[in-house]
Amino acid sequence: MPDPIDNSLNATAKDPVTGFAIPASWIELCPDPLALEKIKSGRWVILSSGRLCRRGLTTGTTAAAACKGAVLSLKGPVSHLKIVTPAGISVPMAVAARDGSCLAVKDGGDHQFDVTAGLEILAQARPAERTALTAGKGIGRISARGLCDEVGRAAISPSARKQIMLAIEQALEETSLAGAEVELSIPRGSELAEKTLNPRLGVVGGISILGSTGFVEPWNDHYTGDRASELKEARKVLVTTGRTGLKISRILFPDHKAVLMGSQLDRLAFDKDQESILCGLPALILKWAWSGILDNTGYGTVAEMVESEPEHPNIARALKMAKEKLPQTRIVLLHRDGRILADVP
Fold this sequence. Notes:
By secondary structure, the protein is an alpha+beta fold. It folds into three domains: 13-54, CbiD-like (2-Layer Sandwich); 57-215, CbiD-like (2-Layer Sandwich), CATH 3.30.2110.10; 220-344, Rossmann fold, CATH 3.40.50. Helices cover 29% and strands 24% of the residues.
């Protein structure tokens, strides 16, 4: 469970989603008297300027709400419920549920580039002796190795599936039902998938259901600009692209200040006297370094290439191009299990 936040302005607070220690000076700059409570909820991120940005909710959290609402509505209409996120934080959500059918809408928060914001996720439930979850229309299928599940299966990550099943179990307990068969679907999933990276990543026919924390970081100009400014504050700094990279990086390089930049790697600018590291899973880093890494290779995704041919010459070439962009920065590519795939000093 996340660490509790000290309500004293003289103490350093912690972001309950990332574990980031928030300097008291940031909170003192915030004009909102409820800043600490908002941070504690997990829904809000504070910047060094004192500005608050609102996190969105993942497709996994939204799908969990739809499934829980569908089961609950077998006993009566539901308009509000709570969902436990993989970060261990419970979030309230509005839904429209009746007679075993529930619609939940994805909240994009202050993420200006989230094409799935406002996406409707639908769940249909019926009583059964055993509980089962099936993926219907609009949920993508995995067509390449190295992704969140086996080829051919629905693109529902393990953490999102666990979150959804927990939500269903809670609903079954509340309704005293023995079990339920739940079908999850995304009415506009196939249409919206064409506006995402899913087809290029190896997910076809719809949207992925994902979410390692349950929250979506507010990647707007204020947030990414603030993250970039944090790079100037430490002599030893590490940039990573996602939650998995952030978690592993903190273990591998505990003496470096870790900053999550997502796909905004073009904003990187290190000082000559800084000891800098770019560390994370290979897909975003290698695609950023060389957009044509997959051309004429037969691979649909970087993840598939890395799993099948970790010594593929295009990986080495992309690493070389990344190093040319950041000549003074150490570049470390990771496997999902924490092993180091490549380390270029």
